[in-house]
Design a protein that fits this description.
Largest sheet: none
Number of helices: 6
Number of strands: 0
Shape: elongated
């Protein structure tokens, strides 16, 4: 039963503190475009969405997206000379992106069915400092 009146100084001092979970930083093995895409994906999600165990899948997802973009640009530049190997590589990368997006819950379908009222709250805009902290080259993973 709650006690009437003001809370004591001790009761206020012991209030729980909830820190925002740390966001994943790009892996050191990623190229510059892959690192930027990694940061975009992590910043577009809630802070606790991706955990350290998701890093290998997220790295593969980012690499597959870069392959899709590069093969699409190559095919669009000269569609008549697109080799079957290039088309096959693009198709495999598309399938990989599709599968990993569902596993990582990056797809619109994965985000659509939330019933948690907190998930409907607007997210704070990501600042330049958040992006800079994720793309900082001086950071060394443990």
């Amino acid at each position: 039963m709650a006690q009437p009146g003001r809370k004591s100084q001790e009761a206020v001092a012991l209030a729980p503190y909830r820190a925002e979970p740390a966001r994943l930083r790009p892996s050191p093995g990623l190229s510059e475009p892959e690192g930027k895409l990694f940061a975009d994906i992590v910043l577009a999600s809630s802070p606790g969405h991706f955990q350290e165990v998701d890093r290998p899948l997220l790295d593969c997802y980012v690499r597959a997206l870069v392959v899709v973009e590069s093969t699409t640009r190559t095919i669009a530049a000269n569609p008549d000379d697109a080799s079957s190997g290039l088309l096959k590589t693009q198709a495999q990368a598309f399938r990989m992106v599709d599968r990993l997006a569902m596993r990582l819950r990056c797809s619109p379908q994965a985000r659509a069915g939330h019933v948690n009222p907190a998930s409907k709250l607007p997210r704070a805009a990501r600042s330049y400092y958040d992006r800079n902290a994720l793309e900082d080259d001086s950071w060394n993973p443990p």
